[in-house]
Amino acid sequence: MKTIKRTKLELCRPILFLFLFSLLADVRYAAGQTLPVTQYPLDSWSFYDTNAWTTDIGYAPVSFTNLNFSFAGDYGSLVVDSTNAAWLQYNVIENDGTTNLTVNQGSVTLWFAPSWGSTNAGGIGSGVWGELVDAGQWTSNATYGWWSLYTDPAGTNLYFSAQNNGGTQANYLSAPIAWTAGQWHFIALTYSSTNTALYLDGQLATNGTGMTIWPSSGVLANGFYIGSDTNGLTQAHGKFDDLYTYNFVLSSNTISSTFNAFNSYYYMLDSWSFTDKDGFWASDFGYSAVSFTNLNRTLGDGLALLLDTNTAAWLRYNVVESDGRTNLMVNQGSVTLWFAPDWASANNYGSGPGSAGELINAGQWTGDASYGWWSLNVDQGGTNLYFSAQNAGSQTNYFTLPITWNALQWHFIALTYSATNTALYVDGKCRDGC
Q1: CB crowding 118-143: b at 16 or more within 10 Å, else e
Q2: How far is CA 120 from CA 114, 155, 418, in A?
Q3: Of 48, 153, 318, 349, which is least packed with CB atoms within 10 Å of its CB?
């Protein structure tokens, strides 16, 4: 695995409140991706079976090595990201005649999250040609046969190419990409004798020429690979989920509707339902807290986190996990949570929390803004809700929202933020930045 620097996300300060937190939604029980009843795939790979890596209709791989599983994705995904050779190989045609992949006409759709960032997006790329779906083997003189959807070493282009065994190669299409590590993308490739097309995140990225060459049946008898080539060295270095193959060209409407129906499962970073019974306060995707102290549970939607003590109390998570999983983005994103104070606002016959209270917090506030801080917080009287940040001597209060809250009353809070706008929703209504 590539080593990624770990930073910290903290839910801290000894304020008194009840806390139920999630990023967008709880998807622990999200169903596998489904399709319109009139359109049937050849096969599909949801990667729920992490022992045998069988397809969704029960076909075992021909061989595999050095694979891993991640909780990321639609409740679990395949990880092909190793410093050693790694591959996952399936038959193109099974012994009973079932076809898993057609190379002259069809469609392939998949979700992919790179463990690397593109060089044109501040990253270093994967460093190798990365095969997403691959059959045959590339050779410099095109004497064997090859068919592949792949990225370049810089991670700046996505290609679809093929070779036959007669010395001919065709680069059917290429599309520029600028990806960040850990971010999911929906990729859809369609191909036929008249046209090839590539869709990224539900939108047409590019068209190419029609299919004219592909590997021979003898080459295809050796199967195809997900995430690498036959040698396991040109790895895509990332996570795969919900891969589907078809023997016909999917319509653009089907591709866009599939992306729109399932993007929330892949664009959600993580969620916290606080139902972990093992005492590690693990997220819904299975990532344990870095540290915690003086926490309890109370009732909410099932169980909820209770952070309510007169001594130091906190619950801290990584911003970026050691496997590249991102739990929080501070420059663009959304945070949603349910929160019930144990205090009433000072403007509602109460006294507030008595000190500034952090709902979600990264970094540390300082008087001269010399360290760095990012926070959704309330004031000591519980009369205002703030979204603020500090960096390099500068502080910004993006908004201040007056509140009048009762003790033990739940409120749904949704914060959205980007380079162009910040907005705050309370109990389903936009209250600031609309």
Answers
A1: beebebebbebbbbbbbbbbbeeebe
A2: 14, 8, 20
A3: 349
What tokens were used for 401?
């929202």
Sign of dihedral through CA atoms 6, 330, 260, 185? negative
Residue 64 buriedness (CB in 10 A; 0-12 / 13-18 / 19+): buried
Q: Which amino acid is at 425?
A: Y
Contact 337, 415 (CB under 8 A): no
Angle at CA of residue 118, ends 117 and 119, nearest 5°: 115
CA 387 to chain centre: 25
User: What amino acid is encoded at 390 in this protein?
Assistant: Q
Count of residues in the chain: 434
Q: Which residue has the tokens 């129906």?
A: 261
Q: How far apart are CA 263 and CA 196, in angstroms?
A: 24
Local confidence band at 332 (pLDDT 50, 70, 90 cut-offs): confident
CA distances for 56 relative to 32, 42, 89, 331, 334, angstroms: 10, 10, 15, 38, 33
Q: Is the dihedral of CA 189, 190, 191, 196 positive or negative?
A: negative
Distance CA 108, CA 99 (A): 13
Q: Which two tokens stand for residue 250?
A: 């999917």
pLDDT in tens, 67-90: 998 877 777 899 999 999 999 999
Distance in angstroms (rounded) separating the CA atoms of residues 49 and 221: 24
Mean pLDDT estimate for the chain: 88
Query: Which residues of 209-331 form beta strands (DSSP E)?
Result: 224-226, 238-246, 291-293, 296-300, 302-307, 314-318
CA angle 110, 239, 134 (to 5 degrees): 55
> Are residues 282 and 288 in contact, defined by beta-carbon separation less than 8 angstroms?
yes
Residues 6+ apart with CB under 8 A from 106: 42, 190, 191, 192, 245, 246, 247, 248, 249
